[in-house]
Amino acid sequence: MKKPSLESLGLYERTPKICIPLMAKDLAGLSLQLLENRTLPGDLYEWRLDRYEGDIELGLGIYKRAVSLPLLCTLRTKGQGGEIELDPPEYLRRVRELIELSEHFQLIDIELCAGDSAVRELTEAAHERGLLAVVSQHDFADTPPGEEMLRTLVHMKDLGADLPKLAVMPKNPLDVFSLMSASFEAYALLGPVITMSMGEIGRLSRAAGSFTGSCITFGAGARASAPGQLGAAELRQVLDILGRGL
Question: Per residue in 120-170, pLDDT tens?
Fold first, then answer.
């Protein structure tokens, strides 16, 4: 697949793209999840490599043979909601190794908590290999003030993010609207972003990207990867309804 741009992936379109997570632990599980998800209305996949224990390059080969959709590769650390404990130097090394396999995928997740220097290094390495960089931050405890969320998204862009990604945990509906407002402001300043308010309360934000500038929303296939995720099929229905007339 030709190396992508935001335009070629349709990320400037009003209706968000649906990304389906792959949460397999081995090659057999990956093949099974791809088979189970084959009829779902996804636009791209995210492969959560923090759960995976097999050979990554072999897995990427299986993906390319089974699916023609773009792929986001993510190594999510425990502090950010993943299943692998890595100190900053080890995280940097592992993501750099993943970037070296760039011919097999299109987008790479880079955690903001790795530190500014590491994030800049990784976004530059990703761009050199033709990858789009998704710089991400997840707050599972709270929803920061709107101004702080906007500053975080702008800072991600300054560090080289093609797509700044921010996920926060709401305590009430006002927190959800605060996230959505910050997302809209960031979109007006930066272009497409990825934002979501997690949990049951935050589900509205996952379907509201047409109004908030969030260009990718995550819809569960065989298994959800975060609290509050809608199934990909029901998410498509909601997006189609909300997108009428836009």
Answer: 999 999 999 999 999 999 999 999 999 999 999 999 999 999 999 999 999
Distance CA 220, CA 122 (A): 28
CATH H-level, domain 17-243: superfamily: Aldolase class I (3.20.20.70)
DSSP string over 79-123: GGT-SB---HHHHHHHHHHHHTTGGG-SEEEEEGGG-HHHHHHHH
pLDDT for residue 202 is more than 80: yes
Q: Give the residue ranges of the annotated binding site for 3-dehydroquinate.
A: 46-48, 76, 206, 225, 229
Q: pTM for the complete prediction?
A: 0.95
Which residue numbers are catalytic?
Answer: 138, 165
Query: Is the per-residue pLDDT at 1 higher than 60?
Result: no
Q: How far is residue 242's CA from residue 94's CA, in Å, rounded to a whole number?
A: 40
**Distance (Å, whole) CA 239 – CA 61:** 31
